[in-house]
Every structure is written in C-alpha cells, then in structure tokens.
Design a protein that fits this description.
Blueprint: E1 3-7, H1 12-23, E2 27-32, E3 52-55, H2 61-68, E4 73-76, H3 87-107, E5 114-120, E6 129-131, E7 135-137, H4 144-148, E8 164-165, H5 179-198, E9 202-207, E10 209-211, H6 224-233, E11 239-240, E12 247-252, H7 253-265, E13 273-276, E14 281-283, H8 284-295, E15 302-303, E16 306-307, E17 314-315, H9 320-324, H10 333-344, H11 354-363, E18 368-369
Helix pairs in contact: 1-7, 2-3, 3-5, 6-8, 8-10
C-alpha cells in the first residue's frame, strides 16, 4: 500500500487530493495548521474523523519530521496564498517551510520516493502574448506607471504594439511579480533542484485558478469564485480590478487532484515544472456574470479603476506537457460553478469579508487606483 503525506490537507486542493488517494487505496496522513484565515471554525467537517490528521506548523521542525515518518510520497500543498499584506509570513511558510522539509528528509535519510509540490501560474511575470509583427513574445510585467494611466494592455517588448493573449508554455520566463508569486518560485525551484541533487523524483505543478467546493468562504484575499459568491449572496456587487476583461484559466479542484495523482504515479513529468489548467482563458467579468446568473441575483459587477501592481493581464495555460502524460480535465467552468454553488448554499453564515480586506489592501498599496486627470 502506498503511503502519502498531504501537507495543507484540510484545504481546498489538499482535502480533495486526500479523498482521491484514499479512494485509490493509499494510506494518507494529513498535516495542516488550520490557518484561522481559511479555517475560521477549526477542523472542517470534510476531514474525516478516522483520518491520520496532524495539526501543526510546517515550519516546526519536530512536527514536519514526525509527519514524514513512514511516508513514501509527499504532496506538498501547504502554502500561504493570495493577495495578503504579510511579507514575512509568505517567506516563512512558503520558502523557509519548504526548505526545512527538504532538509529534514535529507538529514534523516528518509525513504521518500517522490515529492509533488504545488506551484502556481503566479510564477510567470506576464502571460504569453502574440505580436502582429514579432509573433509569440513574453512581455515583462506591466509597469505601475502604465497601470496608473489606465492602460491595461500588454505591449510587445520589442515594438510596443498591443499583443493578444496566447497560451503560456512552461519555458516562459518566471520571476514572480508579487510576494506570493516570488515564494512559489522559491518553492518549485527548491524542490526541483533538491530532487536532482539527492536523486529523488520531484514534480512542480503550476496550478491555474483552482476553485470548487470547500474553497474557503472566510478568506477574502484569495479565490475569485468564492469572493464573488459571498458578495452576491450579501446583495453586494462583485468587485473587478482594472476593467474586468483580464482573463484567467480555471481548473476545477477535482481535476487538480487528478493531476497530482498522475504526477505521482507516472515518471513522464519527473524533474519538470508542469502547467495544470483547462487551456481556456475566461474574462473575469464573464465569471462574475456567470455566477450572478446561476444564483439568480441580478447585480452587475463593479469596476472603479483599481488595480493590483504585479498582477498579470492574461494567463491561459499551455497544457500540452501534462496532456501528453495522460491528463484530461473533466469539469468545465459552468458545471464547476454549479457544483460550487450547490456547496455554498449549504454553508451557514455566509458573510462578506471582502470589503474590510479591500480597505486594508488599499492602505498598504497592494491595491491602487488610476490617476485622475
């Protein structure tokens, strides 16, 4: 019987992955600190009572050493995410926590057979674009000065022409233009480099926007589908940054769990960063309108000229690499939103936490506004 550790295993992706592994006959241990921002009421009901559950901090050396004992495969999902203002916490949890886990495995010579780490599309500086003259280009992040002028377009780095979005392949430049994105670069590079050094197979899965049942209704900093739902259910408009026409690639959480299982059981992706997505970009405004229609709540989304520096304009994942290994998404966006709404309707006390959080982000400069003439 295969034995797995799922860090962050009470969260959105981790919990669905743990469920899938158990159905496939794996023995699963979950490590989660039950971060209050996400798990406001403690251990969620979807973590079964008979789960080998360890509540503890990834950054505590003794805790991670105990959680790794007797494990074959590590699915490292734990991370601090979203657009939050705590720089130190991002680096401490994502970068230091990952480094310490790898250090413990090496120092204790643990018989780990593979590590699959959760990376993110946030590692890219900007999505790929197609220039009328120069073809496929990889533009740098849009300058804050440009965004302050209300110019949301992505320009060709060679001639300055406006580009159209193109699927972003894994060989696109990475760097991370937010604190979160920077620490995800840290995580995937640490894991892939370490794996080569010690001879243990590793895979870094670059998730697109993941959504689905169990996405926290308490965290106002991450998860656009959840945030739009909680706003609408409180008779408030979804808030759009820029003009709402930026596009994202959405992945249903059960598809992402299947991608993890594939990465663990196949050697085709070993040593590689791998995009996980649908291969289809959807405007954020359209997502808000789909949710509004599905809920039967007619409140138009609101765009007031605010933007988040470092946020990419378009990101559609080029999924050729993972599809060649046998991956096929099974849940499209309309069906996935329907399933999320079925779940959220069963939750109690669905409040709007976004308004207060948005004020915090404005004060700290994480959200800025277009300059007025």
């Amino acid at each position: 019987m295969k034995r797995a550790l799922v860090t962050g295993g009470a969260g959105l992706i981790g919990s669905h992955l743990a469920d899938l592994l158990r159905r496939e006959g794996w023995r699963v241990r979950v490590l989660d600190n039950l971060e209050p921002q996400t798990h406001r009421h403690g251990r969620p009901a979807w973590v079964a009572e008979d789960t080998d559950f360890v509540q503890g901090d990834l950054c505590d050396r003794a805790t991670i050493a105990a959680a790794l004992a007797g494990v074959d495969i590590v699915f490292h999902q734990a991370a601090y995410g979203g657009y939050m203002p705590e720089i130190t916490k991002y680096v401490h949890v994502n970068s230091l926590g990952t480094a310490q886990m790898l250090e413990v495995i090496r120092e204790q010579n643990l018989p780990i057979k593979k590590i699959v780490v959760a990376s993110s599309q946030a590692v890219y500086s900007e999505g790929a674009g197609r220039c009328p003259e120069h073809g496929l280009v990889f533009p740098p992040v849009r300058p804050v000065e440009q965004l302050r002028m209300g110019d949301w377009q992505v320009h060709c780095p060679v001639c300055g022409a406006v580009t159209t979005t193109a699927p972003t392949p894994e060989h696109a430049p990475i760097g991370g233009e937010t604190v979160y994105g920077l620490t995800k670069v840290d995580q995937e590079k640490l894991v892939l480099l370490w794996g080569k050094q010690v001879g243990i197979p590793t895979v870094a899965l670059r998730y697109s926007c993941t959504y689905g049942p169990r996405q926290s209704i308490f965290n106002p900093y991450t998860g656009v589908v959840a945030i739009f739902c909680t706003r609408l259910l409180n008779d408030l408009p979804p808030v759009l940054y820029e003009d709402g026409e930026q596009t994202r690639d959405f992945s249903f959480v059960e598809d992402v769990a299947r991608a993890n299982l594939l990465a663990a059981e196949s050697d085709a992706l070993d040593g590689l960063p791998v995009n996980v997505g649908s291969g289809r970009g959807v405007p954020i405004r359209e997502v808000a309108e789909q949710i509004s229609h599905a809920l039967g709540i007619s409140i138009a989304p609101q765009a007031e000229g605010e933007f988040r520096p470092g946020e990419m304009r378009h990101l559609t994942s080029d999924t050729e690499r993972i599809r060649a290994a046998g991956y096929q998404p099974q849940v499209d966006l309309a069906a996935g939103i329907g399933r999320y709404l079925d779940w959220i309707r069963g939750q109690r006390d669905v409040r709007d936490y976004f308004s207060e959080a948005a004020d915090v982000l404005r004060r700290k400069g994480i959200v800025q506004r277009v300059a007025r003439a």
